[in-house]
Specification:
HlyD-family secretion protein; 4 helices; single chain; six-stranded antiparallel β-barrel; 390 residues; conserved putative lor/sdh protein from methanococcus maripaludis s2 fold; alpha+beta; Elongation Factor Tu (Ef-tu), domain 3; transmembrane helix
C-alpha cells in the first residue's frame, strides 16, 4: 500500500524537473536572440554613421560649380586714349588797320557771331576828317572836269567857222581827259581812306563762337598788338587724343569715338577726322583728332578721355568673374570630360559692361567655370551645372 503510494508520488517530481529545464533553455534562446538583434542594430547604426561621415568628404572633394559655354560674339576693338579739348578751327582775331584807342567792345566770350560782325571799334576822328577832305577834292576834280568838257564843246562849235584850229581842239581834249583822270585819282584816294577807316573796326572773319577776349575800352591797339579775340569757326570742337604708336596704326579717319570730358558724366559721339602722320620720338605717341559737335560741357583747353572703335571681330565673351589672374598672367578654369578642372591661359581684350573679350586661348565651346575659380585647384573634381552665358 505504501509502496504504491510512493511510486505514484515520485512521478510528478520528475516531470516538473524536465519542464523547468526546458524553460531555462527557452529563456536562454530568447536572450541570445535579443542580444543578436541588438548587435545587428548597433552594427547597422554604426555603418550608417560611417557612411554619413564620408558624404561631406566626398562632397568637399567634388564641389558644385556653374559652367558656361560662351561661344563667339562680335566684339568691337576699342582703343582708349586721353587728350585735350580744342576748337577744331581756331581763329585768332587782331588789329588789321593802323589801330588806335578802342572805343567799344561789343561781344563777350561765349557769344555767337556772324561773319563780318563788328567785335570792337577803334577811335577814328582823324580818319573821318581825312575822308571829308578827300571827298571835297573829288568834288573839285569833278568841277574841273566839267569845265574842261564845256570848253571842249564850245571849241568844237567854232571849228567850222575858222575861229579855232584843230590844234586847239586837241589841246582842250587833252585838258578834259586830264581833268577826268584827276577825278578818278581823287575818288580812288577817297575810297582808300574809307577802306582804311573801315579796317579800324575789328570784325569776325567767319561765323562762330567767341572763346576769349583780351581787349577793353580805352586800350591802345595796333597792328603789332597781341590777339584780341579767339574764335571757334562754326563752334566746331575736337579732341586731340594722344594714342600710342601701336594703336595709331589701327585707327583710320572715319572711325567712331566716344568722348567723355573730365569732371562730368556726359558722353559725346564723334569721329576721327585726322590721324597724325608723325609720332613723337620721345613719348612714342601720335595725335588722333576727333571732331565733336559743340556743347557747353565741351570747353577748349579741358581734358577728356576717349574710346575709339578701331574695328570689330569675333571672340568669346566671359563675365569678369570667370577670368583670374596671377603672376603668370590671365587664365580661366576649364572643366574637361572627366569633370576635372584645368587651367587655361588666355589673352584678354576689351573689358566692357557686356564682359571680357578673349582674344586668344579659347575657342568658345569649352565649359568655363563662371565664378569661384579662386577656390579651385587644377585637377580637382567638380560637379558642373550649366549656367547662362552672356
Amino acid at each position: 500500500m505504501n509502496y504504491e503510494t510512493s511510486l505514484v508520488g515520485d512521478a510528478p517530481a520528475n516531470v516538473l524537473g524536465e519542464q523547468e529545464e526546458r524553460s531555462v533553455w527557452r529563456r536562454r534562446l530568447t536572450i541570445g536572440a535579443v542580444v543578436a538583434i541588438v548587435l545587428i542594430a548597433v552594427a547597422t547604426w554604426v555603418g550608417m554613421r560611417g557612411n554619413g561621415a564620408d558624404a561631406p568628404a566626398n562632397a568637399a572633394q567634388a564641389p558644385v560649380v556653374t559652367v558656361i559655354s560662351p561661344g563667339r560674339s562680335t566684339v568691337s576693338n576699342t582703343v582708349s586714349a586721353t587728350g585735350s579739348l580744342a576748337a577744331r578751327v581756331e581763329m585768332p582775331v587782331g588789329v588789321v588797320g593802323e589801330g588806335g584807342a578802342v572805343t567799344r567792345v561789343l561781344v563777350q566770350p561765349g557769344d555767337w557771331v556772324r561773319a563780318g560782325q563788328v567785335l570792337a571799334t577803334v577811335e577814328r576822328s582823324v580818319q573821318t576828317e581825312q575822308i571829308r577832305s578827300l571827298a571835297a577834292q573829288v568834288e573839285v576834280a569833278r568841277a574841273d572836269a566839267k569845265l574842261a568838257q564845256a570848253q571842249l564843246d564850245r571849241a568844237k562849235s567854232l571849228v567850222s567857222r575858222g575861229f579855232i584850229s584843230q590844234a586847239d581842239i586837241d589841246q582842250r581834249t587833252a585838258t578834259r581827259d586830264a581833268a577826268n583822270a584827276r577825278v578818278n585819282v581823287a575818288a580812288a584816294q577817297l575810297a582808300e581812306q574809307r577802306a582804311r577807316t573801315g579796317r579800324l573796326d575789328i570784325r569776325a572773319p567767319a561765323a562762330g563762337l567767341v572763346l576769349t577776349r583780351a581787349v577793353e575800352p580805352g586800350q591802345i591797339v595796333s597792328a603789332g598788338s597781341a590777339v584780341l579775340f579767339r574764335m571757334a569757326k562754326g563752334g566746331e570742337m575736337e579732341m586731340l587724343a594722344q594714342v600710342s604708336e601701336g594703336d595709331l596704326a589701327a585707327i583710320r579717319p572715319g572711325n567712331s569715338a566716344t568722348v567723355t570730358p573730365v569732371g562730368g558724366t556726359a558722353q559725346f559721339a564723334g569721329r576721327i577726322w585726322q590721324v597724325s602722320p608723325v609720332v613723337d620720338n620721345q613719348t612714342r605717341q601720335g595725335i588722333a583728332r576727333i571732331a565733336i559737335p559743340y556743347d557747353p560741357a565741351i570747353r577748349p583747353g579741358g581734358f577728356a578721355s576717349a574710346a575709339i572703335v578701331s574695328g570689330s571681330g569675333s571672340a568669346p565673351m566671359l563675365p569678369e568673374s570667370a577670368v583670374q589672374s596671377d603672376e603668370k598672367g590671365n587664365f580661366v578654369y576649364v572643366v574637361n570630360g572627366r569633370n576635372e578642372v584645368q587651367r587655361r591661359d588666355v589673352k584678354i581684350g576689351q573689358v566692357t559692361d557686356a564682359g571680357v573679350s578673349i582674344l586668344n586661348g579659347l575657342n568658345g565651346d569649352e565649359r568655363i567655370v563662371a565664378s569661384a575659380g579662386a577656390f579651385l585647384t587644377p585637377g580637382q573634381k567638380v560637379k558642373p551645372e550649366a549656367g547662362k552665358s552672356k
